[in-house]
Amino acid sequence: MYDLDAFPGGRIVGGLVVMSMIAVVLFLFARTYRRSTAAGANRRFDTVEIPPDIPGSREFIVRDDKTGSSFQFIVLHDYARITRVLVPKRHEGAGAERDMFVEALKRSGGVQNWAWPVSTAEGQEFLVRLSHEFPQLRFVDGYGNRIGWQ
């Protein structure tokens, strides 16, 4: 492609360019590795409180850095409603929804009543499993059916 012998010192300049590119790549890998092993860098979830649409409520988004999933919910008094659950196809059924829900429980302030959006059959099965795992909570599906109540 290029004839490095066409000008004096061409091979030396070409070698320096290649070595500098390798050094930059190694530096970037080292910086990424250092950030990933730093204290606090292993936090998987990012929970953000956003301005609510309903006065007096609190609204949150939980993001999962490991799977790229997100979970949005609104808290009003002792009631929480999940408004959106997004999980990439390759992570469906891997427990990302459960992990995000557990993270949401930490930020919800002790909410006992949870309403879920309309979901698929797999989502309904997940909701039943979740109601067995957290029997102290009350769940309502997207159709208004109570799940796991005594």
Report what the structure shows.
With 150 residues, the chain is α/β, with parallel strands linked by helices. It has two domains: 34 residues; 103 residues, 3-Layer(aba) Sandwich (Aminopeptidase), CATH 3.40.630.30. It is built from three helices and seven strands. The chain has a seven-stranded mixed beta sheet with strand order 1-2-3-4-5-6-7. Strand 2 and strand 3 form a beta hairpin. The longest helix is centred in the N-terminal third of the chain and has 28 residues. It is elongated. It starts with 9 loop residues before the first helix and ends with a strand. The model has no long low-confidence stretch (mean pLDDT 84). Keywords: Membrane, Transmembrane, Transmembrane helix.
CATH-level-2 architecture of the largest domain? 3-Layer(aba) Sandwich
- Average pLDDT confidence is 84
The assigned structural class equals alpha/beta
Distance, first to last CA = 76 Å
According to DSSP, the number of beta strands is: 7
Question: What's the CATH topology label of the largest domain?
Answer: Aminopeptidase
Q: What is the highest CATH level, the class of the largest domain? A: Alpha Beta
| Order of adjacent strands in the largest pleated sheet | 1-2-3-4-5-6-7
Provide the gyration radius in Å: 25 Å
Q: Helix-strand pattern, N to C?
A: HEEEEHEHEE
Shape: elongated
Main sheet record: 7 strands, mixed
DSSP strand content: 15-25%
Query: Which blocks of ≥5 consecutive residues have pLDDT under 50?
Result: none
Number of helices: 3
Assembly annotation: single chain
* The CATH homology group name of the largest domain: Gcn5-related N-acetyltransferase (GNAT)
Q: How much helix is in the residues? A: 25-40%
The total number of structural domains is 2
